[in-house]
Write a structure and sequence with these properties.
Order of helices and strands: HHEHEHEHEHHHHEHEHHEHEH
Oligomer: single chain
Largest sheet: 4 strands, parallel
CATH topology of one domain: Rossmann fold
Distance between the termini: 35 Å
């Protein structure tokens, strides 16, 4: 087994078994983990406290108990999270951090039934005003105070600034990895690419950075082979489970870039420079663009995707529409019209974590490949 395969397998194991990653972290540090609900949150505050931020993105799960608390039109991420927390899956977490950019997240934050205490904060949606930064700084102050009380630690400005640098390095390395994956699609297929990115939700960031740096160096040491299939960009909230990504690989598609909330949107830009760490984190939210959950009347997402198509020489964009995700569904007609005008081909598939059959997606991908 090559070193490239070994590193990818290690990261894949972490991505598929977050509980073990949490247990290993606790053995090494003596500290626990804090859950982070989708989509964006100041993980740096948790990292600065010495605890492990752990992403909570649901999973492939049959839903029964959650139906009591959530309507059937709630997205499957929230349904599966509710189901798992009712089963006690998250009770080992020291706390759970909620941002509430959509109605379903607001609902779930108020219906949390687990034993872990919940910390809720709000991202302002009129984001481009200086008042938005000031508001978000106050929200982050409350988050810090609650974390300090629950975790029994002191979170200093210096520690937060240090954590921001750790996270920014990880963001830069992940952007480099994403570009490299586009150059080596024969080595890093869609599932492997996803695993490397997803593992960052369950690892201390400097360790993840070190592993990805080594992976990049090992891949660069091998000659890039010509890829004879089709190159696509994914956009949406997520492209899970792996069975969905396998369909692309089986049909000769390479994922050369993504605009997924679970993936590259997390590291699209760095937290800006500055001295006040909470203001720096607030500015990140103001400068971040291209997501349905970050309101922008100018709707830049379509142009951003078209620019990505040119940059990565992509043949098409695949819209991974999370079932019942209102913000994403509202965005779709806008950028679809832009694609049509620009002559960019696109495919629409529906993502549902509760689904166990992927034949419809398989048929659509096969037909799309023939059309291209």
């Amino acid at each position: 087994m090559s070193r490239v395969e070994t590193i990818i397998n290690e990261l894949s194991a972490i991505a598929s078994n977050p509980r073990k990653a949490m247990e290993d972290f606790k053995k090494e540090t003596g500290k626990g983990a804090v859950g982070v609900m989708p989509v964006y949150a100041p993980e740096e505050l948790i990292h600065a406290a010495g605890f492990l931020p752990v992403g909570i993105w649901g999973g492939q799960k049959s839903i029964s108990k959650a139906r009591t608390y959530l309507p059937p039109f709630a997205c499957s991420i929230m349904q599966s999270v509710m189901e798992m927390q009712l089963e006690g899956a998250y009770d080992d977490l020291a706390a759970v951090l909620f941002s509430v950019p959509c109605d379903t997240l607001k609902c779930l934050s108020q219906k949390w039934k687990g034993t872990s205490p919940v910390i809720v904060f709000t991202h302002p949606q009129n984001r481009k005003l200086e008042a938005a930064n000031k508001f978000l700084v106050e929200e982050f102050k409350l988050v810090r105070e609650k974390l300090e009380k629950i975790l029994n630690v002191k979170i200093t400005d210096e520690a937060i600034n240090n954590s921001i640098e750790v996270y920014n390095e990880n963001r830069r390395v992940m952007r480099e990895f994403s570009d490299l994956a586009a150059e080596y699609p024969n080595v890093i297929d869609a599932v492997k690419r996803h695993a490397v990115i997803k593992a960052r939700f369950f690892m201390e960031k400097s360790k993840h950075t070190a592993m990805v740096k080594e992976l990049i160096a090992e891949v660069k040491a091998t000659p890039a082979e010509e890829f004879k299939g089709k190159r696509v960009i994914l956009t949406g909230i997520m492209a899970e489970p792996n069975e969905v990504l396998d369909i692309f690989t089986e049909n000769g598609f390479a994922v050369v870039a993504d605009d997924l909330a679970q993936e590259s949107r997390q590291f699209r830009i760095d937290v800006p420079e500055g001295t006040d760490p909470l203001y720096r984190l607030a500015k990140w939210w103001q400068e971040f663009d291209g997501c349905a959950l970050a309101t922008d009347p100018k709707k830049p997402r379509g142009q951003m995707l078209m620019d990505m198509v040119k940059k990565y020489n992509a043949d098409a964009v695949v819209v991974c529409m999370m079932k019942f995700c209102d913000p994403e569904e509202f965005d779709y007609p806008i950028y679809y019209a832009q694609f049509e005008e620009a002559g960019i081909k696109s495919l629409y598939i529906e993502i549902d974590q509760e689904s166990t059959s992927f034949e419809q997606i398989k048929t659509r991908v096969q037909s799309f490949g023939e059309m291209l």
